[in-house]
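Morning - S-adenosylmethionine inputs below, output right after.
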Amino acid sequence: MKSVVLVALSLSALVAQPSPKGQNLAPYVSSPQEIIDVMLESAGVRPGEMVYDLGCGDGRIVVTAVKKFSAKAVGVELNPTLARTASDMIYRLGIQNHASIIRGDLLDVDISQADVVTLYLLTSSNEKLRPKLEKSLKPGARVVSHDYAVRGWKPVRVEELEVHGRNHKIYVYVVKPAK
Ligand SMILES: C[S@@+](CC[C@H](N)C(=O)[O-])C[C@H]1O[C@@H](n2cnc3c(N)ncnc32)[C@H](O)[C@@H]1O
């Protein structure tokens, strides 16, 4: 009887896991690996730098930043299942000293330590995020956005490439010192 109650309790904990509060700012679509490589290269990610992927999905940008660029990385993800997948991947690869996942709303997370922020959201979401980026990021930090521009900012670089028959754009921005 005791074990039945325990199983029931743990099942209900799984099912009733509370979703973090926050607005869904983009559907889940992964950036192809080729695009991720170019995003991080275009941002000039250096060893030891801190990369934040806001809306990290399954964590592939976080993993690439650590494994290919020797950076540290944090992923922020609203969807609990995706956040768990990303976190599991980090532990499976044994990179937990360099990478972590925050399950929550990207608009609530402290990003002041970021050297590079990666985005694959929507133009309207970037618009919501822009004041936070302007307030929080240090001068010289880079913001790289897959497919969706940050309106009102001038990119230092725009890459256009075709992957698996689809055209992609990568916008690279550098945060200027405050006037
Ligand atoms: C287009 S996917 C990008 C995934 C990954 N960055 C990539 O490029 O492969 C956008 C992700 O943002 C997440 N997301 C949407 N709104 C969010 C929010 N308010 N806070 C954190 N994550 C959010 C979605 O769940 C989704 O996984």
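Note: Residues 1-17 have pLDDT under 50 and may be disordered.

O.
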